[in-house]
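User: Batch of two.

Assistant: Item 1 of 2:
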Amino acid sequence: MSAHFDVPVGDPPCDTCNMAKACAELKMVCEAFSAYAYGKKWRGIVRQPSHALYQRLYHVYSVEESEALERKLAAMREKNKRTLESKGIATGRKRNPYERRTA
Protein backbone atom coordinates (compact mmCIF):
# COMPACT_ATOMS: atom_id res chain seq x y z
CA MET A 1 0.00 0.00 0.00
CA SER A 2 1.19 3.45 -0.68
CA ALA A 3 0.11 6.98 0.06
CA HIS A 4 -1.47 9.32 -2.46
CA PHE A 5 1.32 11.21 -4.17
CA ASP A 6 1.26 14.19 -6.47
CA VAL A 7 3.51 13.85 -9.48
CA PRO A 8 7.07 14.56 -8.30
CA VAL A 9 9.05 16.96 -10.45
CA GLY A 10 12.78 16.78 -11.01
CA ASP A 11 15.38 14.48 -9.53
CA PRO A 12 14.67 12.93 -6.13
CA PRO A 13 16.76 14.13 -3.20
CA CYS A 14 18.14 10.60 -2.77
CA ASP A 15 20.15 10.87 -6.01
CA THR A 16 22.70 13.14 -4.33
CA CYS A 17 22.40 11.89 -0.75
CA ASN A 18 25.17 9.87 0.91
CA MET A 19 22.58 8.14 3.16
CA ALA A 20 20.44 6.79 0.29
CA LYS A 21 21.77 3.21 0.47
CA ALA A 22 21.29 2.97 4.24
CA CYS A 23 17.79 4.45 3.95
CA ALA A 24 16.81 1.89 1.33
CA GLU A 25 18.15 -1.02 3.40
CA LEU A 26 16.59 0.16 6.68
CA LYS A 27 13.33 1.43 5.14
CA MET A 28 13.79 5.03 6.17
CA VAL A 29 12.94 8.34 4.51
CA CYS A 30 13.59 11.97 5.38
CA GLU A 31 11.43 15.09 5.23
CA ALA A 32 13.10 16.04 1.93
CA PHE A 33 11.96 12.79 0.29
CA SER A 34 8.50 13.17 1.81
CA ALA A 35 8.19 16.67 0.35
CA TYR A 36 9.46 15.38 -3.02
CA ALA A 37 6.92 12.52 -2.98
CA TYR A 38 4.09 14.99 -2.42
CA GLY A 39 5.31 17.27 -5.21
CA LYS A 40 6.54 20.03 -2.89
CA LYS A 41 9.85 21.89 -2.81
CA TRP A 42 12.44 19.89 -0.91
CA ARG A 43 15.69 21.76 -1.39
CA GLY A 44 17.08 23.12 1.85
CA ILE A 45 15.21 20.68 4.09
CA VAL A 46 17.47 19.00 6.65
CA ARG A 47 17.83 15.29 5.99
CA GLN A 48 17.18 13.28 9.12
CA PRO A 49 15.79 9.94 7.92
CA SER A 50 13.59 7.85 10.17
CA HIS A 51 11.62 4.63 9.97
CA ALA A 52 8.59 6.34 11.59
CA LEU A 53 8.40 8.79 8.69
CA TYR A 54 8.66 5.86 6.26
CA GLN A 55 5.70 4.18 7.98
CA ARG A 56 3.67 7.37 7.91
CA LEU A 57 4.49 8.03 4.25
CA TYR A 58 3.77 4.51 3.01
CA HIS A 59 1.10 3.60 5.58
CA VAL A 60 3.10 0.57 6.69
CA TYR A 61 2.45 -0.84 10.13
CA SER A 62 3.87 -3.76 12.07
CA VAL A 63 1.74 -6.78 12.92
CA GLU A 64 1.28 -5.51 16.48
CA GLU A 65 0.24 -2.05 15.27
CA SER A 66 -2.17 -3.58 12.74
CA GLU A 67 -3.75 -5.78 15.40
CA ALA A 68 -4.09 -2.79 17.74
CA LEU A 69 -5.76 -0.79 14.98
CA GLU A 70 -8.15 -3.69 14.27
CA ARG A 71 -9.07 -3.92 17.97
CA LYS A 72 -9.63 -0.17 18.13
CA LEU A 73 -11.80 -0.29 15.01
CA ALA A 74 -13.86 -3.21 16.41
CA ALA A 75 -14.37 -1.30 19.68
CA MET A 76 -15.49 1.77 17.76
CA ARG A 77 -17.95 -0.30 15.72
CA GLU A 78 -19.37 -1.88 18.88
CA LYS A 79 -19.73 1.51 20.57
CA ASN A 80 -21.42 2.90 17.47
CA LYS A 81 -23.81 -0.08 17.37
CA ARG A 82 -24.74 0.40 21.05
CA THR A 83 -25.32 4.11 20.47
CA LEU A 84 -27.61 3.44 17.53
CA GLU A 85 -29.52 0.78 19.46
CA SER A 86 -29.97 3.10 22.44
CA LYS A 87 -31.59 5.61 20.07
CA GLY A 88 -33.96 2.95 18.77
CA ILE A 89 -32.22 2.44 15.45
CA ALA A 90 -32.08 -1.24 14.49
CA THR A 91 -28.70 -2.64 13.53
CA GLY A 92 -27.43 -5.96 12.26
CA ARG A 93 -30.34 -6.73 9.97
CA LYS A 94 -30.64 -5.58 6.40
CA ARG A 95 -34.12 -4.47 5.48
CA ASN A 96 -35.88 -6.42 2.78
CA PRO A 97 -36.80 -3.87 0.08
CA TYR A 98 -39.96 -5.88 -0.73
CA GLU A 99 -41.13 -6.05 2.88
CA ARG A 100 -44.14 -3.91 3.72
CA ARG A 101 -43.57 -1.19 6.22
CA THR A 102 -46.09 -0.55 8.91
CA ALA A 103 -46.25 2.91 10.40
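Item 2 of 2:
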Amino acid sequence: MGWCYKISRDKCNLLKNINMKIIVEFDCSSDNHDGLIERFLMDYPESNYVIDENVIFKNDEWESIDDIDTFLCEEICHEYESYCYISDDNTIKEYYYDEEDEWFEKLKNER
Protein backbone atom coordinates (compact mmCIF):
# COMPACT_ATOMS: atom_id res chain seq x y z
CA MET A 1 0.00 0.00 0.00
CA GLY A 2 2.84 2.43 0.69
CA TRP A 3 2.12 6.05 1.50
CA CYS A 4 -1.26 6.22 -0.25
CA TYR A 5 -3.10 3.97 2.18
CA LYS A 6 -6.33 6.03 2.22
CA ILE A 7 -6.99 6.80 -1.44
CA SER A 8 -8.12 4.85 -4.45
CA ARG A 9 -5.57 2.87 -6.45
CA ASP A 10 -6.01 5.14 -9.51
CA LYS A 11 -5.38 8.30 -7.49
CA CYS A 12 -2.45 6.62 -5.78
CA ASN A 13 -0.87 5.78 -9.14
CA LEU A 14 -1.50 9.33 -10.38
CA LEU A 15 0.25 10.82 -7.37
CA LYS A 16 3.16 8.41 -7.60
CA ASN A 17 3.63 9.40 -11.23
CA ILE A 18 4.18 13.04 -10.21
CA ASN A 19 6.95 12.00 -7.82
CA MET A 20 5.15 12.58 -4.56
CA LYS A 21 7.46 12.99 -1.59
CA ILE A 22 5.51 14.84 1.08
CA ILE A 23 1.73 15.04 1.11
CA VAL A 24 -0.85 16.81 3.23
CA GLU A 25 -4.23 15.15 3.18
CA PHE A 26 -7.50 16.44 4.60
CA ASP A 27 -10.39 14.07 5.23
CA CYS A 28 -13.62 16.09 5.21
CA SER A 29 -17.06 16.17 3.60
CA SER A 30 -17.17 17.17 -0.06
CA ASP A 31 -19.25 20.23 0.92
CA ASN A 32 -16.09 21.66 2.49
CA HIS A 33 -13.56 20.90 -0.26
CA ASP A 34 -13.64 24.28 -2.02
CA GLY A 35 -13.23 26.37 1.14
CA LEU A 36 -10.54 24.09 2.51
CA ILE A 37 -8.57 24.21 -0.74
CA GLU A 38 -8.85 27.99 -0.93
CA ARG A 39 -7.67 28.35 2.68
CA PHE A 40 -4.68 26.01 2.28
CA LEU A 41 -3.59 27.67 -0.97
CA MET A 42 -3.52 31.08 0.75
CA ASP A 43 -0.44 29.90 2.67
CA TYR A 44 0.93 27.44 0.12
CA PRO A 45 -0.03 28.91 -3.29
CA GLU A 46 2.46 26.75 -5.20
CA SER A 47 0.81 23.54 -4.03
CA ASN A 48 -0.86 21.09 -6.36
CA TYR A 49 -3.85 19.12 -5.20
CA VAL A 50 -5.99 16.15 -6.09
CA ILE A 51 -9.54 15.58 -4.90
CA ASP A 52 -10.52 12.00 -4.26
CA GLU A 53 -12.70 11.32 -1.26
CA ASN A 54 -10.12 13.51 0.46
CA VAL A 55 -8.16 16.57 -0.59
CA ILE A 56 -4.48 15.82 -1.08
CA PHE A 57 -1.83 18.52 -1.47
CA LYS A 58 1.72 18.29 -2.80
CA ASN A 59 4.35 20.99 -2.96
CA ASP A 60 7.83 20.44 -4.44
CA GLU A 61 9.34 22.87 -1.92
CA TRP A 62 8.53 20.59 1.03
CA GLU A 63 11.54 18.49 1.95
CA SER A 64 10.32 17.17 5.29
CA ILE A 65 7.00 16.66 7.03
CA ASP A 66 8.26 19.25 9.51
CA ASP A 67 8.12 21.89 6.73
CA ILE A 68 4.33 21.91 7.01
CA ASP A 69 2.73 24.51 9.28
CA THR A 70 0.82 22.28 11.69
CA PHE A 71 -0.90 25.27 13.31
CA LEU A 72 -2.41 26.16 9.91
CA CYS A 73 -3.54 22.55 9.49
CA GLU A 74 -5.14 22.59 12.95
CA GLU A 75 -7.04 25.77 12.11
CA ILE A 76 -8.29 24.25 8.86
CA CYS A 77 -9.31 21.06 10.66
CA HIS A 78 -11.39 22.95 13.19
CA GLU A 79 -12.91 25.30 10.62
CA TYR A 80 -13.88 22.54 8.19
CA GLU A 81 -14.35 19.65 10.65
CA SER A 82 -11.60 17.69 8.98
CA TYR A 83 -8.86 15.25 9.89
CA CYS A 84 -5.34 15.91 8.64
CA TYR A 85 -2.56 13.52 7.67
CA ILE A 86 0.94 14.76 6.84
CA SER A 87 3.17 12.04 5.47
CA ASP A 88 6.24 11.02 3.60
CA ASP A 89 7.33 7.52 2.61
CA ASN A 90 8.14 6.49 6.18
CA THR A 91 6.27 8.67 8.69
CA ILE A 92 2.78 9.98 9.18
CA LYS A 93 1.53 12.75 11.45
CA GLU A 94 -2.20 12.67 12.19
CA TYR A 95 -4.51 15.30 13.66
CA TYR A 96 -8.15 14.74 14.62
CA TYR A 97 -10.12 17.93 15.27
CA ASP A 98 -12.66 16.16 17.50
CA GLU A 99 -10.14 14.45 19.78
CA GLU A 100 -7.25 15.66 21.91
CA ASP A 101 -5.60 18.77 20.57
CA GLU A 102 -2.34 17.08 19.64
CA TRP A 103 -0.55 15.49 16.69
CA PHE A 104 0.16 11.78 16.59
CA GLU A 105 3.32 10.73 14.80
CA LYS A 106 4.27 7.18 13.88
CA LEU A 107 6.13 5.13 11.36
CA LYS A 108 3.91 3.90 8.56
CA ASN A 109 4.71 0.26 9.22
CA GLU A 110 3.14 0.72 12.70
CA ARG A 111 -0.33 1.28 11.19
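Residues 1-7 have pLDDT under 50 and may be disordered.
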